[in-house]
Specification:
Helix content is 36%, strand content 19%. The chain has a single domain, classed as Rossmann fold (3-Layer(aba) Sandwich), CATH 3.40.50.200. By secondary structure, the protein is α/β, with parallel strands linked by helices. It is globular.
Length: 282
């Protein structure tokens, strides 16, 4: 029994957050990341990368439009997939992309604009975007810096569709990072409250962009640095920016070991969080 305790104590001592995340190879290389958001301004992101002395990423993307919008083939049908032309429908997604690239500059970036020309995200578009990121882009990591209110999930069919999409991602070893509502826990938002198969994130007063904390509280588990670096409201603490930081941290870990499963990423983050706080694993 003592030997077993010693084994875990020694294993825990090897978990050094700074050592892992500061490894030169922990730059996001080879990790496909989808941003389910408002799209990405490719030109603005390219400028930001050049300012940091980095090669701009090649961003692939699509726009999920509602019924009545003509798709790529010119045919109108529900939930059209429209071509991405390097622009965003609102600055939010560009701020998220900039945070991700600040932490993991070598990721392969994919943009799923679920707001589009009509400026609103529906449960159906979110579900479609998750399936698209897994099956078409074969992404390993998906950032969801948005949420769906409980009121919009009163329909059992919608709630089931979202739950099945989350499980679909999990069963394909795709890591989901979801932002809680900015007023959490007063306001609950999906999919962040579906905590078991994903990484749920809320705001944290953390100075270091690579700092995060395992702090379970009312359907969320993690806190992360919650300020952005460019764009409207980037300096205002928000769960969206916290989720983007944790996505960047997950991308760093995946670039070191690409075959990590979602539960392994969560366990590793939990242990690294405790190790950085000087605590023992429970």
């Amino acid at each position: 029994m003592a030997l077993a305790r010693d084994f875990f104590r020694e294993l825990f001592c090897l978990l050094d957050r700074d050592r892992l995340l500061s490894d030169p190879a922990a730059d996001g290389s080879g990790v496909r990341v989808a941003l389910v958001d408002t799209g990405v301004d490719a030109e603005r992101i390219a400028q930001r990368c050049r300012q940091r002395g980095l090669e701009p990423p090649r961003i692939q993307g699509v726009i999920f439009g509602s019924a009545g919008l003509a798709g790529a083939a010119g045919v109108s049908s529900p939930w059209q997939v429209l071509p991405y032309l390097g622009r965003h429908s609102a600055p939010h997604g560009t701020t998220v992309a900039d945070i991700l690239l600040q932490l993991a500059p070598r990721v392969e970036l994919f943009s799923a604009d679920v707001f589009g020309p009509e400026g609103n995200c529906t449960v159906e578009k979110l579900v479609q975007a998750l399936h698209w990121a897994v099956t078409t882009w074969q992404c390993k990591l998906i950032n969801i810096s948005l949420g769906v209110s409980e009121e919009r999930l009163h329909s059992p069919g919608r709630r089931q569709a979202l739950w099945q999409a989350i499980q679909f991602c999990y069963s394909h070893d795709v890591v989901l990072v979801a932002a809680a509502h900015n007023d959490h826990p007063l306001v609950l938002s999906f999919p962040a409250v579906i905590t078991p198969p994903l990484l749920s994130v809320r705001k944290g007063e953390l100075e270091n962009p690579l700092q995060f904390r395992y702090a379970p509280d009312t359907f969320t588990e993690f806190q992360a640095h919650s300020r952005g670096y460019m764009g409207p409201f980037a300096d205002t603490p928000a769960t969206s920016w916290a989720a983007a930081h944790l996505t960047g941290i997950a991308a760093r870990l995946l670039s070191l070991k690409p075959d990590l499963k979602p539960f392994e990423i969560k366990t590793l983050l939990y242990w690294l969080s405790n190790a950085s706080a000087g605590e023992n694993p429970k």
